[in-house]
Design a protein that fits this description.
This protein is an alpha+beta fold and 189 residues long. The protein has a single domain, classed as 3-Layer(aba) Sandwich (Glutaredoxin). It contains five helices and nine strands. The strands form two sheets. A seven-stranded mixed β-sheet has the order 2-1-5-4-3-8-9. A hairpin with a 5-residue loop joins strand 8 and strand 9. Helix 2 packs across helix 5. It starts with a helix and ends in a 7-residue tail after the last helix. It holds the Pfam family SCO1-SenC. This is SCO2 protein. It is found in: Mitochondrion inner membrane.
Length: 189
């Protein structure tokens, strides 16, 4: 038993070191009320972060609805800490604060939208290794933005804990987040 506990402790320690090595970069954006936001603003909270855009015809609304359902499942247990959902636009040209606020009101009430200059948005996407590519414009000037379809889980230390692709159900995401919360230990300095 002692050796098993030692081995498990060493595995947890190794995993935490690996997570620290995967440290994702910071972001400097503005929320829908115009307040500046960075990753530091969310330290101390669990965060589910998704990159998308408001003109997305199908993938982004589906992902945000799945994220909202996962949050509602987690909120059923009052013993769990709240999770802060974030939506970072990959289309700052069309997604200003007002557009984000209008779009996001159809999803979870705590879903916070973030936008910025094209440079700030590109830097945020790069910090999370998110692929973004705007497609060609049609005759009306409309376009689609191709992007990675991942939801990132950040722990209260701001460290990356997991990511969820489009193949995961809301129940699976909620179960995974709960598992990370149950096994959470602050990262050593």
């Amino acid at each position: 038993l002692y050796l098993r506990q030692q081995k498990e402790a060493e595995q947890r320690s190794r995993r935490l070191r690996q997570l620290r090595a995967l440290a994702l970069g910071d972001f400097h954006l503005r929320d829908t009320s115009g307040a500046p936001r960075s990753r530091a603003d969310f330290l101390g909270r669990w965060v589910l972060l998704y990159f998308g855009f408001t003109h997305c015809p199908d993938v982004c609304p589906e992902q945000l609805e799945r994220l909202s359902r996962a949050l509602r499942l987690l909120e059923r247990d009052p013993a769990l800490p709240p999770v802060q959902p974030l939506f970072v636009t990959v289309d700052p040209e069309r997604d200003d604060a007002a557009a984000l606020a209008r779009y996001l009101r159809d999803f979870h009430p705590r879903l916070l939208g973030l936008t910025g200059t094209p440079e700030q948005v590109r830097a945020a996407a790069a910090a999370f290794r998110v692929y973004v590519s705007a497609g060609p414009r049609d005759a009306d000037g409309d376009y689609v933005v191709d992007h990675s379809v991942l939801t990132f889980l950040l722990d209260p230390d701001g460290a990356f804990r997991d990511c969820y692709g489009s193949g995961r159900t809301a129940e699976e995401v909620a179960r995974s987040v709960r598992g990370h919360m149950d096994s959470y230990g602050a990262l050593p300095p």
